[in-house]
Amino acid sequence: HIERNPARGIQKYREAGPRHRWLSGNELKRFLVALDAESDRITSIALKLLLQTGVRKMELLSLRWADVDLQNRSFRLQRTKSGKSRVVVLNSMACDLMTLLHSKKEDGCPWVFPARTGKGHLVDLRKPLQRALDRAGLQDVRPHDLRRSYASLLANAGVDIYQIKDLLGHSSVAVTQQSYAHLQQ
């Protein structure tokens, strides 16, 4: 038996530059239709909320009802990539989805997206995402690409890059510009 991993300490290969994949208008329509046909309603709603809020996957899936304020159409993210909490304001479609989830929540469960096992929250959306992509005839889309799709929609609508930075929770506008500035041209 090997006592030490021979690959330990070797740096992983980094891909060149950021990934530039988001859903085009036509792809977005097909994807949303495919999500409506998804049998697992809770994961379908999670994927729609990723598109409508631009939050990161684990920020959404680890959301607790205690951090949701439906009256003010918002929720607070306690654990973000930057380590700082922030408030996410919900558009009308996202608020409707959160209200629907709230109406179906189980008593005593703190999670907006509870795990099927009854302990903890959902952690993975790859299978439902792949089912929706197959149904929509789309390829090469990852959960984080839904966040990029949200940002690209904002950029194409003429939203200021500083507002996009705040909506995405980026630490600096340089991070936002690196991925989305070309869309505003």
Structural class of the secondary elements? mainly alpha
Could you give the distance between the termini?
58 Å
> How many strands appear in the DSSP assignment?
3
| Strand content bin | 5-15%
User: Going across the major beta sheet, what is the strand order?
Assistant: 1-2-3
Q: What string gives the helices and strands in order?
A: HHHEEEHHHHH
Stretches where pLDDT is under 50 for at least 5 consecutive residues are none
Query: Mean pLDDT, as a whole number?
Result: 90
Q: What is the 3D form? A: globular
Helix content class: 40-55%
Query: The biggest beta sheet, please?
Result: 3 strands, antiparallel
Q: Gyration radius, to the nearest Å?
A: 18 Å
**Helical segment count:** 8
